[in-house]
Amino acid sequence: MKPGILVISHGSREVSWVKQVEELVSEATVLFKQYLLGEERSETSMQQHVDASKESPSIPIYASYLELVEGKLIQDGITALEQEGVTHIHVMPLFVSYGSSHIDEIKQAFGFEPVSDFIGDLEPFDVQAHVDFHEPIVDDPEVIVILQQQLQRLSHNPSHEGVLLLGHGSSYDYFYQLWDKGMKQLMDKLSIGVSFAAMDYAPLLPEQSKAHLEQMQALDQVKSVIVLPIFISPGYFTRTLIPSRLSGLDYVYTGETLLPHPEMAKLLYRRFISMCNV
Q1: Name one GO molecular function term (predicted).
Q2: Is the domain of 8 the same as that of 133?
């Protein structure tokens, strides 16, 4: 059995969005290969140590996209891995939610059964390898660290500040419930050990961001609200949609996302080790 890793994210027409994802996967790949090489070295004699250091451990990793990135789509990734002899593909969905219908759509194209009455429109992938589909990003410890650091930079008087987390949400009830569960877990972990006047989360689909912000601003103890977008990389949602949805309201917002924070490479690196059981 030869394992390989396929990192799948949504994709974007924005070159900068794709560039940040590509750099993330490259950084995590370097960390992972260094780890594997260290494991090999620890199990060899001195001569074998010298020989092993001349070659990179062969668990290939490929970054691919659901759409919008020609030449790097999911089928391109599958083909590239199988051409390297991979017989066991570990799929890492680079999405920040349990409740993304895109994830189930991708799973269906790999041959997995639908989890609800939602049927995706992706054509089945041409794949010969065995496929293990792993969990997306939700409340991973590295995500909590990133958000905590963002709050530390933006907060000046937490006892009079509210925090509103904004995520994608879903128009499908089944996936919305999963999204809601994941966001609650994330908020609960983020609120440990902090003393903000209020903390809440809201979806952009269906649109609830403005109402939640207004409700938080109406609280007597809240003098200002920090809005954090829970997205992988800056793009249309963080630069255009969120500001337009919250137009006319006063809030603290930088549009910072999980990338390009270095903790994200640590997250992927940790996931690579876990999914390959090495």
Answers
A1: lyase activity
A2: yes
Could you report the per-residue pLDDT of 67-92, keeping only the tens digit for each? Answer: 999 999 999 999 999 999 999 999 99
Dihedral, CA atoms, 185, 186, 189, 191, nearest 10 degrees?
Answer: -110
C-alpha span between 7 and 13 (Å, rounded):
18
Are residue 77 and residue 166 in the same domain, yes or no? no
Domain with 169, as residue range(s), is: 141-245
Burial class (CB in 10 A: 0-12, 13-18, 19+), 202: buried
Spatial neighbors of 9 by CB under 8 A, at least 6 apart, are 21, 63, 64, 65, 66, 93, 94, 95, 232
Read off the amino acid at residue 119. I
> How many CB atoms within 10 Å of residue 63?
23
Q: What is the pTM of this model?
A: 0.91
Bridge partners of 164, per DSSP, are 200, 227
Whether residues 213 and 239 share a domain: the answer is: yes
